[in-house]
Amino acid sequence: MSKRIAVLVTDMVEEIELTDPVKAYEEAGHTAEIISDEAGKLIKGKNGHELKADKGIDEVNASDYDALLVPGGFSPDLLRINPKNGAFAKAFMEAEKPVFAICHGPQFLVETDLLKGKELTSFISVRKDLENAGAIVRDEEVVVDGNLVTSRTPADLPAFNRESLKLLK
Asked: Of the residues 3, 104, 118, 152, which is catalytic?
């Protein structure tokens, strides 16, 4: 059965951490929509590529989607500025829907106030933030804790995609 995945990003996203999982999801028959500040926004990636937002955060609800992807780069830190983004992610976690976060993506999930006791991984520079939020941080290519899949860097994308796709079945 095809699933609908929300991809929450803004400027300075690590492009490969968005495009590689989305390609894997679409090849498996799922659909992904890029959600940002506003529909049609041109998102400037960390490496100079531009991506277009399908929808704005004000026009979406977590109930419209089956899963959430939070790519890394500096986008996760910028997403924290707007509390609507945190509320959107929190709704996925409260509903126990799959949440996929890579690199700096798990740092954004601190905004949900739901990381206490969760096992996860991330890029090394944000691990202290996650520990301070009560998470149990592992240094592994992919960590799955219930509905939460996390990875450290683009090098971990094969494992990240594999485990994400398992949860989408």
From this structure: 104
Known catalytic membership, residue 49 = no
Is residue 30 annotated as a catalytic residue, yes or no? Answer: no
Whether the Cβ atoms of residue 7 and residue 69 lie closer than 8 Å to each other: yes
Task: Please give the domain boundaries of the chain with CATH numbers for all domains.
Answer: 4-168 (3.40.50.880)
Which residue among the candidates 22, 103, 143, 148 is catalytic per the annotation?
Answer: 103
Prediction pTM value: 0.98
Residue numbers of the chain with a pLDDT score lower than 70: none
Dihedrals phi, psi of 36, to nearest 5 degrees:
-145, -160
Neighbours of 26 (CB within 10 A): 13
Taking only the tens place, the pLDDT of each residue in 105-140 is 999 999 999 999 999 999 999 999 999 999 999 999
Structure tokens at 149: 């899949």
The total number of residues written for the chain in this structure: 169
Q: Cα dist. 50→20, 29, 54, 84 in Å?
A: 15, 24, 13, 23
